[in-house]
Amino acid sequence: MSSSSPSLDTLLTWIRTESPTHDRAGVNLMMDLVVAQMQDSPVAVERIPGTEGLGDVLVLRAGPQTAEPGLLVMSHLDTVHPVGTIENDLTLRIEDDRLYGPGIYDMKGGAWFALEAFKEVARKGTAARPMVFLVTPDEEIGSPITRPMIEDLGRRSAYALVTEPARDGGQIVTARKGVGRFDVHVEGRPAHAGSRHKEGRNAVYEAARQILAIEALTDYARGITTTVGMVSGGTAVNTIPQHCRFPVDLRVETVADGEAVTAALLGLKSSNPDFKVSVSGGMNRPPYERTESTAKLFDHAKSLAAEIGFDLVSAPRVGGGSDGNFTAALGIPTLDGLGIDGDGAHTLQEYGLISSIAPRQKLMARLLETLR
Fold it and tell me: Most buried one in 49, 104, 197, 267, CB count within 10 A?
């Protein structure tokens, strides 16, 4: 695909349509573009109104009308970049093979060409199984409103294909860490920092002790990481703080480790009875473990890529989660990282490689045609 391709013009329109997760109007404009893209094709479009102030959900159906388990393709159209990024910090531009713009890599590029492949296979009538394409508005915040839908569709599917971006030169994803989110609240006793210091119980001090214990749960050999990236506490520099709060990010490779570390975090207590420590939260995305069935799915994709003319490589386990974690945890063979190649996700240097679009679009089409 060349930089002057008429097809690329429609992708540029996608990138110009900024769609941060909490901008419902922007996300729904993206959903409008998908609906328009499916016009004049044998694709049934179901649009489900979003809840909790988030955008709508699209369920696209095509292929054989049978009761057998189908093929589930998943893309999200929300991004992390605030509105205005494209005008000021990450302008839409093409530099050689690189297409720069907010959300091009994560994951509008992959979603766009996967929809093109889906439509092509639907028109040709060559799908191997019933096809469902789920387009979601909330992946960047953990899929709070769409997880039940993902799991329901996953249970009725033989395979799941996820268009998150390719990794490190086009590598496919066959395993991801599970992700946990926790909130910790430490309550102490307020006091004047000068005249009544001894009477106070410094919540920030106790939070620091708890943070050291939490960070000590990190075990690189087992693939466990705990991170406290923000801390909020106190009201004034001369007041012993009564409250301190901080979130915890947890990443694990196995369900067992997720359960063990979750129990440790939820069981945090202070050794000093004058402090109260409260913890809420849990695993947001279960681990996506590489199974024998997923390995076979990758081998099939690799052979198709070879026929198309490129080498498909499986990336090492990825630390970030995706909606593929949900289907993989159900035992559904799941292939992720099928989106555009590039780099710079969530940064102001985000770009996709134009040359990766055509071959990876062909790969998606061939997967839809051959996965029996």
Answer: 104
Q: Is the same domain home to 10 and 131?
A: yes
Catalytic residue among 18, 23, 56, 78: 78
The closest alpha carbon to 173, from 363, 321, 371, belongs to: 321
Confidence class of residue 279 from pLDDT cuts 50, 70 and 90?
A: very high
CATH of the domain at 135: 3.40.630.10
Residues 38 and 67 in one domain: yes
Half-sphere exposure (Cβ direction) of 284: Cα atoms closer than 13 Å = 23
Respond yes or no: is residue 18 known to be catalytic. no
Q: Is 78 a catalytic residue?
A: yes
Residue 321 and residue 284 in contact, taking contact as beta carbons nearer than 8 Å? yes
DSSP classification of residue 178: E
pTM, two decimal places: 0.91
Residue pLDDT, tens place only, 50-63: 999 999 999 999 99
Encode pLDDT of 82-104 as tens digits: 999 999 999 999 999 999 999 99
Given its phi and psi angles, is residue 333 left (phi above 0), alpha (psi -120 to 50 degrees) or beta? beta
* Residue 19 CB-half CA count within 13 A: 30
Residue 285 — pLDDT band, cuts 50, 70, 90? very high
Q: What is the mean pLDDT of residues 154-161?
A: 99
Query: Residue 37: which of 18, 21, 14 has the closest Cα?
Result: 14
Q: Which of 23, 139, 187, 323 is catalytic?
A: 139
- Parent domain of 352: 6-176+288-370
Q: Alpha helix locations (H) across the chain?
A: 6-16, 24-37, 85-88, 109-124, 147-155, 203-215, 255-266, 292-308, 324-329, 357-370
166 in the same domain as 307 = yes
